């Protein structure tokens, strides 16, 4: 039994979560604690009690702890990558790569602990000056999703700790193993008791406590738009308004222009839309393709998909693993039916697959003849389902790309510098890619979007300081 960590103690739970392998539903990855509201309450109290001493620690100490944790993550990347792939379903290379990325995030933020900058400015009154400094927020509630079960927690927890905050971490119920391993490594790296607390269990119970508790100062959340909206209401509805960082959905476009390199465009499309089973908020699920290249692009994507192997996440010949669970598989299949009913044509895939182990295997689905107003072109599916919409020219393609409530990522494939430059300026998204898949982002760069995709300061890199610290201006007169 893997227990919750509260106040430096691994606590025996009243209930447990059975962690199922989506590549083989007969296999239990492990048993993990299922905490409740009382556990969340105790974790908040422990984090609050630990905050004053942790906020006053040397930046060198915080650096050293994060650096040690980064080194262990990197040393164990194959082992932990296998664990991650077993519980989430992404392929083993993707799982190992995610663990390595988490290690890089911790190492980068270790350095940031030593680079907390401020300013000293002259005051406007004679004989006065002013100091502008950054101080930690306090207690941060971290609520993470299931699709990147170690990287996203790492890029939320690491800056929180680097800047002197304490944390209560609630991971997704589907993927407790990766979360537990990350917390165990950080705890053993030397964190004082109560600085990092892990409460696995129900989002409605634990998340509800974190969002409404008066001793929690901020919430960093990644997940769906409806859940994000509920969290926002809870954070502002109490007696003490909380700082919020909400990373939510995406319906990301990839424009393919007539002048695009076809091979580059196909690889950007397939990698961006279907790999990691399409379970990425940055997945490019809308292909907007101009007339001159449309038919060639569709044929080439279908040909590329015919060579893609869907199978057990840990097998060497697998390109795409299973969907994460039965609920997500049912959602994907429902949207495939919706696409057919709306009049779109299924050009490839969309079938449930049988393998020699029972799992949630779905053939990637490609729809063509998709109108911009169809639900499959407007609503986030979060699975290996993509649509192709025709556009007359760049201007119409850009209009269709921006005609969405979301604004996380956007991509274009073109050899035209003029069109690439216009797209970078005019795409209504926080992340813009030219001749690259929309998925994936370097750990030292800011992550976030606009419109319904994001709310609050950016995640990752040096920009994380804007969320995890408060600015203080102090005057002194001679």
Structure write-up:
The protein has 478 residues and is α/β, with parallel strands linked by helices. The chain contains 14 helices and 22 strands. It has helices spanning 37-55, 59-75, 77-88, 92-112, 151-162, 176-188, 203-212, 225-237, 262-274, 291-306, 326-342, 394-402, 417-426, 465-468; strands spanning 4-6, 9-11, 16-21, 24-33, 119-122, 128-136, 139-143, 166-170, 196-198, 218-222, 243-247, 253-256, 286-290, 345-348, 365-368, 385-391, 406-407, 409-413, 431-434, 450-451, 454-455, 469-477. The strands form six sheets. A seven-stranded mixed sheet has the order 14-15-16-13-12-18-19, with helices on both faces. The chain has a six-stranded mixed sheet with strand order 9-8-7-10-11-21, with helices on both faces. A three-stranded antiparallel sheet has the order 5-6-22. Helix 2 crosses helix 6 (176-188). The chain is globular, with a radius of gyration of 23 Å. It starts with a strand and ends with a strand. The model has no long low-confidence stretch (mean pLDDT 97).
């Amino acid at each position: 039994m893997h227990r919750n960590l509260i106040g430096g103690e691994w606590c025996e739970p009243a209930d447990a979560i059975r962690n199922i392998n989506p590549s083989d539903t007969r296999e239990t990855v492990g048993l993990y604690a299922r905490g409740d509201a009382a556990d969340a309450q105790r974790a908040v109290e422990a984090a609050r009690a630990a905050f004053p001493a942790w906020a006053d620690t040397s930046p060198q100490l915080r650096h050293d702890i994060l650096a040690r944790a980064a080194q262990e993550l990197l040393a164990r990347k194959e082992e932990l990558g296998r664990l991650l792939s077993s519980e989430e379903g992404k392929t083993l290379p993707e799982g190992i790569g995610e663990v390595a990325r988490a290690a890089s995030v911790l190492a980068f933020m270790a350095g940031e602990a030593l680079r907390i900058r401020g300013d000293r400015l002259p005051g406007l009154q004679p004989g006065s000056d002013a100091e502008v400094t950054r101080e930690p927020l306090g207690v941060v509630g971290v609520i993470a999703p299931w699709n990147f079960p170690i990287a996203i927690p790492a890029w939320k927890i690491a800056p929180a700790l680097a800047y002197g905050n304490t944390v209560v971490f609630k991971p997704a119920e589907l993927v407790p193993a990766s979360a537990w391993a990350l917390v165990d490594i950080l705890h053993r790296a030397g964190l004082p008791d109560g600085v990092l607390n892990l409460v696995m269990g129900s989002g409605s119970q634990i998340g509800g406590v974190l969002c409404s508790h008066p001793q929690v100062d901020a919430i960093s959340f990644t997940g769906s738009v409806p859940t994000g909206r509920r969290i926002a209401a809870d954070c502002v509805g109490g007696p003490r308004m909380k700082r919020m960082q909400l990373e939510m959905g995406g319906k990301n476009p990839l424009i393919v222009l007539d002048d695009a390199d076809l091979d580059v465009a196909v690889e950007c499309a397939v990698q961006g839309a279907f790999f990691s089973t399409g379970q990425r908020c940055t997945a490019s699920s809308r292909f907007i393709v101009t007339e001159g290249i449309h038919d060639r692009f569709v044929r080439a994507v279908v040909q590329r998909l015919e060579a893609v192997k869907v199978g057990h996440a840990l097998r060497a010949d697998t390109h795409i693993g299973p969907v994460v669970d039965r609920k997500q598989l049912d959602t994907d299949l429902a949207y495939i039916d919706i696409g057919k009913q709306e009049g779109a044509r299924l050009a490839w895939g969309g079938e449930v697959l049988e393998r020699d182990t029972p799992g949630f295997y779905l053939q990637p689905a490609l729809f063509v003849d998709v109108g911009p107003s169809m639900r499959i072109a407007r609503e986030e599916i979060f699975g290996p389902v993509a649509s192709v919409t025709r556009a007359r020219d760049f201007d119409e393609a850009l209009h269709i790309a921006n005609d969405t409530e979301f604004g996380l990522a956007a991509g274009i494939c073109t050899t035209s510098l003029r069109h690439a430059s216009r797209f970078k300026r005019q795409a209504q998204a926080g992340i813009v890619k030219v001749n690259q898949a929309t998925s994936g982002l370097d750990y030292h760069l800011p992550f976030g979007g606009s419109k319904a995709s994001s709310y609050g300061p950016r995640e990752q890199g040096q920009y994380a300081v804007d969320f995890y610290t408060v600015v203080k201006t102090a005057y002194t007169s001679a």
